[in-house]
Design a protein that fits this description.
Number of strands of chain A: 10
Strand content of chain A: 15-25%
Radius of gyration of chain B: 17 Å
Low-confidence stretches of chain B: none
Mean pLDDT of chain A: 94
Largest interface: A-B, 23 and 20 residues
Distance between the termini of chain A: 52 Å
Structural class of chain A: alpha/beta
Distance between the termini of chain B: 17 Å
CATH class of chain B: Alpha Beta
Number of domains of chain A: 1
Shape of chain B: elongated
Structural class of chain B: alpha+beta
CATH architecture of chain B: 2-Layer Sandwich
Shape of chain A: globular
Strand order of the largest sheet of chain B: 2-1-6
Oligomer: heterodimer
Number of helices of chain B: 4
Radius of gyration of chain A: 18 Å
Amino acid sequence: MSDLKRRDEDPRKLLIERRLADVNNVIPVMSPKGGVGKTLISTLMALAIAENNFSVGILDLDVTNPSVHVILNLNPSVKPSEDKGVIPPEVHGIKAMSIAYYTEGKPLPLRGSEITEVVREILAITIWGNLDYLIIDTPPGMSDVHLEIISNVGKARPLIVTTSHVLSIYSVRALLTILKETGVPIIGLVENMSENPTDMVIDLCKEFKIRYLGNVPSESLIALSVGNTTLMRKTRAYNKIAEIIKRLSS
Amino acid sequence: MRYLCSVAGGGKLKSVKIGLGELQSIDEAVFRFALTELMRVEGCELSEDSVVFVRKPATFQCRRCGHSWTLNEMSLNDEEREAIHFIPEVVHAYVSCPACGSRDFDVVGGRGVEVMEVVVE
């Protein structure tokens, strides 16, 4: 027997492919810069997709700092059910999966290799079934979670989020370079917290030959709407995201 | 399972020794039944009494102070154990170093499932 071969193969990789076999679109929402609104954009996208009667799931892979459950106001007592895997609970028409179900709100500091284990484990155990869209919220940076997605989720077509700030654009340029180098198809870029499209961001999209999907305005109501999806749907940000989703799905 | 079938080559396995990490909290009877049935479906043979399990105790070492300890020294309730069963790394949410209180520790042993030995008939 080939012990070496056996140990090199992680059976979860095969399982991950199967778990995502019936998911039509896997969209990781990425940006190396923190604070640009990845989680909010991810959640608004999932809400808008559900509103358009598509089947949608959201997976929070910001595993050491999950917050999708806070935005969606998930009931912490509701746990995923188990049947040959884990079935994410459905809230607001969205199948929502998060490590937060398993940590009871306690802090979870993890080293890099442990983050890799968690990402593989969650992807391998979660049963999504048939989905039109799976939105994946990712942490800032360009590290274990992002590399796991690039390497093990062949269907992933990332959506990039940036603000018009020069430092955010600088960081996004590095991410786009990595994604282009590895041949990962990019669904497009959203400019967040901007009243109008910015030339620098549009130029970046042109340079990397990716779609500029639109700008999302900054507003105080969005902060107040965390945990209240009814209020969230009344924001300008939600309407802009809904427009983007319509364009993407048409 | 596929690995075991590839070793069996469509025939019969005399015995299989499998290491079960304590953090996985795997039910041996369920696992034994599932493994032998799935092998049968794949056209290989392995009797239930030929499957031997070796429990691998969960052991930890603190990255901050170097202290080593086992899961047995910690008191975890059933919900916490079940959470760790699904995603073993969440042990960092429920366990901290008994010596210095840090959650920054290595899981030295007791994670995962491992085929330790296969004997072909």
